[in-house]
Design brief:
By secondary structure, the protein is mainly beta. The chain is built from no helices and six strands. Strand 2 and strand 3 form a beta hairpin. The chain is elongated, with a radius of gyration of 13 Å.
Length: 67
């Protein structure tokens, strides 16, 4: 069963996810799940309020993959 997505934001080089239960912003360590020519898609699983949650992020790459 897929876990519901949560609100996310990036600030000062940190990846933050908002707990869907209590609303607290938590710093999470995302991992790359997919890359495209200009963008990288990241995902982090975290636990807050007894719930397993998934945060997704999309960042613009500072380089271009041509392979």
């Amino acid at each position: 069963m897929e876990k519901p997505r949560v609100k996310t934001r990036m600030e000062s080089g940190r990846f933050l996810a908002q707990c869907r239960e209590c609303g607290t912003w938590v710093e999470v360590p995302p991992q790359s799940v997919r890359t495209e020519l200009f963008f990288e898609h990241l995902e982090a699983e975290f636990r807050c309020c007894g719930l397993n949650q998934i945060a997704t992020f999309t960042t613009e790459k500072d380089y271009i993959d041509f392979h």
